[in-house]
Amino acid sequence: MKKLQAHYVQTLAHDVKTPLTVMKTYLVGLKNKRLSFNDQINQDLIAEIQSIESLIPKLIASDMTHIEQNQNIALLLRAIITKLEPIFQTKQIRIISQIDDMEMNIATVDIQRLVEHLLFNAYYYSQSKNSIEIILDAQKKTLKVTDHGLGMNEETLMMIKQGPYRDKTSIKYHQKGSGIGLQIVFDIIKRIDAQYEIQSIIGQGTSFIVFFK
Predict the structure, then answer these.
(1) How many Å apart are CA 97 and CA 60, to the nearest integer?
(2) N or C: which end of the chain has fewer CB within 10 A?
(3) Any idea of the CA torsion for 72, 194, 80, 122, to the nearest 10 degrees?
(4) What element of type H or E holds 154?
């Protein structure tokens, strides 16, 4: 029961992290006068606060119910990309997207977590003025996120498949990371009966491909 509770708390903590990062980016931009406060920023901040508020009952009840529904996940992906673009711009990183409309039966929270964790991983381990590509291919039923950053060797790839792991080089790029983000991705992929492949070359970058059922 303690292990299950710890898993719930870790998962919910990651769900809180994304809206907090968005809010912090806006507030720092306003403080440094890189942004001007307007109705859109106000609406975005309120939306992020509401998303955190919606997690509180789940935290209290440890309720991680996933309600699957048939939906066009392209709409969710485009919304996530739009939300994260201001954060990525702080490192002058461009998100290049090619998103096909694709219907599938999946819980909204699962696809959101999946995409956000993959994009943030690419962001954290990429240098400034780089690009990240995200492709949703309806014909192949695949989601592919590619960065041109740090890259991983075979040993690191093997270790992260066994549990949360970060090597010394990755810690230099992102000191506050815990390695649990990819574990959440792996859990979701397993639960929705999908498959994945990681292609990575040290110093050249990483591609994470999800093969949907």
Answers:
(1) 37
(2) N
(3) -150
(4) helix 154-160
Residue 88: Cβ-neighbour burial (10 angstroms; 0-12, 13-18, 19+):
buried
Q: What is the pLDDT of residues 187-209, one digit of tens each?
A: 889 889 999 999 999 989 999 99
Judged against a pLDDT cut of 70, whether residue 166 lies above it is answered with no
Q: Kindly report, residue by residue over 30-82, the tens digit of the pLDDT.
A: 888 878 888 888 988 998 898 888 877 766 665 544 567 889 999 999 999 99
Phi, psi values for residue 15, rounded to 5°: -65, -35
Burial (CB count <10 Å: 0-12, 13-18, 19+), residue 45: middle
Write down the residue that tokens 């649990």 correspond to: 180
- What is the DSSP pairing of strand 131-137 with strand 94-99? parallel
Instruction: State the Cα–Cα distance between residues 14 and 181, nearest whole angstrom.
Output: 8
Nearest-angstrom CA–CA distance, 73 and 211: 14
Report helix, strand or coil for 95.
strand
Quote the pTM value. Answer: 0.68
Residue of 44, 22, 171 whose CA lies nearest to 90: 22
C-alpha angle 66/121/117, rounded to 5°?
10
Q: How confident is the model at residue 25 (pLDDT cuts 50, 70, 90)?
A: confident
